């Protein structure tokens, strides 16, 4: 069974994330979405809220593609998470050259830790290349329209969270 791990904080999950998830399902039999517990980033949504959003947003995709999609929170090293879930590959989305520079370093470190786990890069579709969760939150916080960047359900959850 080919198992891939797509890690991130997903705070919140965007259409860019969903694009990478959809395209990843063609590469693997099981896709594990690793939700990073990153206290340093200070996520807006709790871990439970992020997991719930991801499960809701990927349920239909799992049915459409026939690929098993599992959401797995993690707080350890990415390579250790890959071992924990049995992943042979780590899937990373790239939006711009700046993403590649950071990811290039990460691949080198992960390969030094375990060269048997490959990293696969998927370029974001052109219409999704500008989308970043951080920017989506800022636009929403300032009252802008985020409907081009997230699903209607995520948009509603983000608005509700920001009005509290």
Automatic annotation (TrEMBL):
- Which UniProt keyword terms apply here? ATP-binding, Coenzyme A biosynthesis, Cytoplasm, Magnesium, Nucleotide-binding, Nucleotidyltransferase, Transferase
Quaternary state and partners of this protein?
Answer: Homohexamer.
Catalytic activities = (R)-4'-phosphopantetheine + ATP + H(+) = 3'-dephospho-CoA + diphosphate
> Which residues bear the site annotation Transition state stabilizer?
17
Gene Ontology MF term list = pantetheine-phosphate adenylyltransferase activity
- The name under which this protein is listed is Phosphopantetheine adenylyltransferase
Q: Which cofactor does it need?
A: Mg(2+)
Question: Which amino acids does the record list as binding substrate?
Answer: 9, 41, 78, 92
For this protein, the Enzyme Commission number is 2.7.7.3
Q: Which NCBIfam families match?
A: coaD_prev_kdtB, cyt_tran_rel
């Amino acid at each position: 069974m080919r198992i891939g791990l797509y890690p991130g904080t997903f705070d919140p999950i965007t259409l860019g994330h969903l694009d990478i998830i959809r395209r990843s399902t063609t590469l693997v039999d099981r896709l594990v979405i690793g939700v990073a517990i990153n206290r340093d980033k200070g996520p807006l949504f709790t871990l439970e809220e992020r997991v719930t959003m991801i499960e809701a947003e990927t349920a239909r995709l799992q049915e459409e593609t026939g690929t098993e999609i599992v959401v797995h929170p993690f707080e350890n090293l990415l390579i250790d998470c890959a071992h924990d879930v049995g992943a042979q590959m780590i899937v990373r989305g790239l939006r711009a050259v700046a993403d590649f520079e950071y990811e290039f370093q990460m691949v080198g470190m992960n390969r030094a830790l375990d060269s048997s786990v490959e990293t696969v890069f998927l370029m974001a579709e052109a219409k999704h290349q500008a989308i970043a969760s951080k920017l989506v939150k800022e636009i929403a916080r300032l009252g802008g329209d985020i409907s081009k960047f997230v699903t209607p359900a995520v948009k509603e959850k983000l608005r509700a969270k920001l009005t509290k």
